[in-house]
């Protein structure tokens, strides 16, 4: 997993509350268990004027020019600004995969659904909670063009935008994992030698557990 370093980037607003995971990545794309390739389907029903699936050539689909991700000023944005209860609905981890594959590294919203919030950290995304009034102001600044870029500094736990420094809270363990680019597999591999030693000892202590069944 990529380390989360200080990020200064464009932000794209999706100024809606209760955006569920089916809006983030619709059900027809859940057939694949790869973590890549979902970015082109992010917010699919809002982003395109026709329905697609994994077998549809995206280049042939009709773009919705009114949706923020399709507007030139928001291209290559790496920060997403959203409303209350972002990521509600089903627990599909594909939602985090789609955001990450699109290029989103940080999300700023007043609140999140808990499972989605946890999935973000496991996939290199930083979900930041800020007061609703603060997020509304950030969205207004971005939409008006007053704020060209936002800086997210995880190490110092702050967002810098429009000349303001906005502190945020994050769990220390999750912060450590993001800063060091460690997912659950990386965390386990830290103890690879301990696991190997345990298995060797267990094999000596209870050899009958390791007999091959014919």
Structural write-up:
This protein has 214 residues and is α/β, with parallel strands linked by helices. It has a single domain (7-182), classed as Aconitase, domain 4. The chain has helices at 21-24, 44-47, 94-102, 114-122, 132-144, 172-179, 184-189, 192-205, and strands spanning 7-9, 11-14, 79-82, 106-109, 126-129, 150-153, 158-161, 164-167. The protein is globular and about 70 Å long. The two termini are 40 Å apart.
Compile the SSE list and pairings.
Elements (H helix, E strand, L loop, with lengths): L6 E3 L1 E4 L6 H4 L19 H4 L31 E4 L11 H9 L3 E4 L4 H9 L3 E4 L2 H13 L5 E4 L4 E4 L2 E4 L4 H8 L4 H6 L2 H14 L9
Parallel strand pairs: 2-3, 3-4, 4-5
Antiparallel strand pairs: 1-6, 6-7, 7-8
The helical percent reads: 25-40%
At the fold tier of CATH, the topology name is Aconitase, domain 4
What is the rounded distance between the termini? Answer: 40 Å
Going across the major beta sheet, what is the strand order?
Answer: 1-6-7-8
CATH class: Alpha Beta
Structural class: alpha/beta
Total number of strands: 8
Biggest beta-sheet profile: 4 strands, antiparallel
Radius of gyration: 20 Å
Q: Which term fits the overall shape?
A: globular
**The CATH superfamily title:** Aconitase, domain 4
N-to-C order of helices and strands: EEHHEHEHEHEEEHHH
Helix run count: 8
Beta content comes to 5-15%
In CATH, the architecture is: Alpha-Beta Barrel
Integer tally of domains: 1
The low-confidence runs, each spanning 5 or more residues with pLDDT under 50, are none
pLDDT averaged residue by residue: 93
């Amino acid at each position: 997993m990529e380390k989360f370093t200080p990020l200064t980037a464009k932000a794209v607003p999706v100024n809606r509350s209760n955006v569920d995971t089916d809006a983030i990545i619709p059900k027809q794309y859940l057939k694949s268990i790869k973590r890549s390739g979902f970015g082109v389907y992010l917010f699919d029903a809002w982003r395109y004027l026709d329905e697609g699936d994994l077998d549809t050539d995206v280049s042939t689909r009709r773009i919705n020019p009114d949706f923020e991700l399709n507007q030139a000023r928001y291209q290559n944005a790496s920060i997403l600004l959203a409303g209350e209860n972002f990521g509600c609905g089903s627990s599909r981890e594909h939602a985090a995969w789609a955001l990450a594959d699109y290029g989103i590294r940080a999300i700023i919203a007043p609140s999140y659904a808990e499972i989605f919030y946890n999935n973000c950290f496991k996939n290199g995304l930083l979900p930041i909670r800020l007061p609703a009034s603060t997020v509304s102001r950030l969205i207004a600044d971005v939409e008006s063009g007053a704020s060209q870029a936002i800086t997210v500094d995880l190490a110092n736990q702050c967002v810098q935008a429009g000349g303001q420094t906005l502190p945020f809270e994050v769990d220390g363990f999750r912060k450590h994992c993001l800063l060091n680019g460690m997912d659950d597999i990386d965390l386990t591999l830290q103890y690879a030698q301990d696991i190997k030693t345990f298995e060797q000892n267990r094999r000596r202590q209870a050899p009958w557990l390791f007999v091959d069944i014919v």
